[in-house]
Amino acid sequence: MQMSLLYGLNALAAALFLMTVFLFLASRQSAASLSLFVRQSLLLSASALLQAYALHSLDLLLVAIITVAAKAVIIPWMLRRSLGGSFQSRREVELAVSVPTSLVIAIGASLVAYFVAQPVVAQAQGFVAVNLPVGLASLLISVYALAVRREALPQFLSLLMLDNAAFFAGIAIATTSALWEIVAALEGIIVTIIVALLTRTISERIGTTHVGALAGLREEGPR
Amino acid sequence: MILVLLPLLPLAAALVTLVPAKPTLARVATLVAALLALAIALRTAQGVGISGAWMPLPNWVGADALSTLLLLLQAVLAVTAALYSWGYIAREAGGDERRERRYYLDLNLFVTSLFLVPLLLQPALTWVAVELTTLLSVFLVGFNRTAEGLEAAWKYAILTIMGATVAVLGILLLLYGLHGVSPAAPETWASLVAEAAKMSPNVLRLAFVLVLVGFGTKVGLFPLHTWLPDAHSQAPSPVCALLSGVEVSTVLYVILRLMPVWYAIPHFPVGDWLIAFGLMSVGAAAFLLLQVHDFKRMLAYSTVEHMGIIVTAVGFGQAGSYAGLYQMITHGLAKSLAFYAAGAVLLIYRSRNIADVRGLMRASPFTAAMLLAAALAIAGVPPFAVFLSEFSVLRSGFLAGDGWIVGLLALFIAVAFIGVMMQVGRMVFGDGAPPETSEPHRLPGSVVLAISLSILPVLGLGLYTPPLLHRLLTLASLAIAR
What we know:
Oligomer: heterodimer
Strand order of the largest sheet of chain B: 1-2
Order of helices and strands of chain B: HHEEHHHHHHHHHHHHHHHHHHH
Number of domains of chain A: 1
Number of strands of chain A: 0
Number of helices of chain A: 8
Structural class of chain A: mainly alpha
C-alpha cells in the first residue's frame, strides 16, 4: 500500500476522531456518550494499525490490539455491568454550560491546539503532523467536557476520552515499548474498576451520582 | 539488589492483610514491612552517599541521591503511619475487623506505589507508578464513607487522573524528542538528560508545559490545587500524613527529575515559570489559611504553601535547589507530625471544626503541646527544621539576585504564619470547656508513640544536619541544577 494512501486514511481516522469529541460534547445521554467512546477507541486503534503497517512496528500492532480489547470491549462491558442503571436511564445529563456555547469553545480550543502544535510538527512528516494537533485539540476539549459535566458517569467518560486523546497523539510521537503499552492498558482497566466502584458507593451512600451537587467541602470564607 | 525488595515489602504485607485473621496480624505485618523498608532505605542512603548511585537493574530500577532522599522520607513516614494507624484505625473502625484489614490492604498498596516512583528509571513506567499512587489511595481518602469523604475521594480521583493524563502526553513528547536525536538510546531519565541539548526546543517547550500543568495538578500548585484541601482533610489522619507529607513530594520529584532537561531549552525562562507558579501557590494558600474553619483543611492549605515554597526555591537555581530539597524533607516530617497531632484532637473532640475545639491544653496537655509544636514547626519557627530550610530558601533567593521575589515570599510566609498560629492558638489556649466523654480523653498508646517519635527529627534536624543528609542534598541539588 502506498504511503500517501496510508497518510490519507490516517487523516480520515483523525478527522473522525476529532468529530467524536465534538459529538461527545454535544451528547446529553450517558449511553450515547459511552457509544461515542467505543467508536473513538476503534478510531484510535485504526490509527495505530495504519502506523504499525507503515512503520512495520510490532509494538504499534500490539497497541492496536490492546486498545480494542481494553477500551472497546472490556471497559464498556465493565461499566455497563457495574453501572447499568445509569446507562439505561434516558434522562439528560446536566451540563454547566449550554451545548452551542460549548461547541464554540471547542472550536476555539481546536485552533489553540493547532497553533500550539504547529512549531513542533513544522519539521515533522506524516503521522505526527496529523496525530499531534488532533490529539492535543481532543485533549483540551475533553478537559473542558470534564469541567462542564456535573454527574459522575459523564465526568468519568470525559476522563476516558481524555486518555484516548493523549494516546492518539502518543502513538504517533513515541513508539514506546510494548510492555509500557500493556501496563498502560491494564492501568486504564484499574482506573475503570476503581472509578466504577467509587461511583456505585457514592450512589448507595448519598442516593445520587450528581457530584456537581456535592458541596459539603466548600467552606472557606467568613462565617 | 536489596533495593528491589523495597516495594516488595509493603506488597507482601498487603498480601498478609488478605488472611481472614484478627487485625493484629495486618497491623504487625504493616509495621514490620515498614521497618524493614526503612532499614533498606538507610542502607541505600549509605551506599548512594559513597558511590553516588545504586543501579541493581540498569535502565529499569535504581537510585541516585535525589531518589534516595525521597525514599528515606517515604520510609520514615511509612513507619510512623503504620504505628499511628495501629491504635487510631482500630478506634475509627469501631471493631469492624474486615474494614480494618481492608484499610491495611489499601495502605500497603499505596506505600508500594509510592516506593515505585523514585525507583523506576524509565519516565513512562514512573508515570504509571504516579497513576497508581492515586488509584491505590482513592479508597483511603473515602475510608470514612461519609458524603464529604466520598466527595473528596471523587474530586481527588478525577482531577489528579486528569492531571496525570495531561502529563503523559508531555512524557511521550520527551520520548519523541529523544528518538529524534538518538533512536537507540534507552528510554530512561539519564538518556533524556544526556540528549536534551540536542532535542528540538519546540518539543521540549510543549513537553514542559504539559508536565508542569499535569503533574502540577497532583502536586497541588495553584490554581490546580482545589482537590487537595478536600482529599487531605477527609482521609484518616495517618493517610493525611502520607498524602501531605510525602505523596505530593513524590509527584514533585518527577518535575524536579526533569529540571536538567528543561534547562537545556535555549532562551527559555524555566526558573521564572517555577517562581511564578510557586509564588502564586504560596500567596493563595497563605490568604486562605486566614479564612479556614477546619483544622485539617488548614494543614492541607499549608501543604499547598510549602509546595509553592519548594517550587519557588528550585526556580532560584542551584543554591535554591539545595534549600528546596531540604524543605521537601523538613516539610514532610513536620506535616506528618501536624496531621498526627490533628488526628489526636479529632479523637478527643470528634470534630474538625476549629470553633468546636477549645481548651485543648486542659483536655489533653500532651496533644496540645504536640499540636502547638507542629504548628510552630510548619510555620517555620526556630529551632524546628523548617525554619532552617525556609531560611535557606530566602537566602538562596537573595544570592540569585531575586530580592523582590524574596520579599514577596517572606510576606506570604508571614501571612501563613499568622493564619496557622491564630487558628492553633485558639484551639490550644481558647476559653471553653473540654468535651464531655465517657472516656477521659485517653489516646491510644501507638498514637502517643508515633507522635513522640515524629517530633524527634522535626526538632533534631533543626539543630543538626547529619553529614550523610548534607551529602545527599548536595548531590541531588547538583543533579537538578542547570
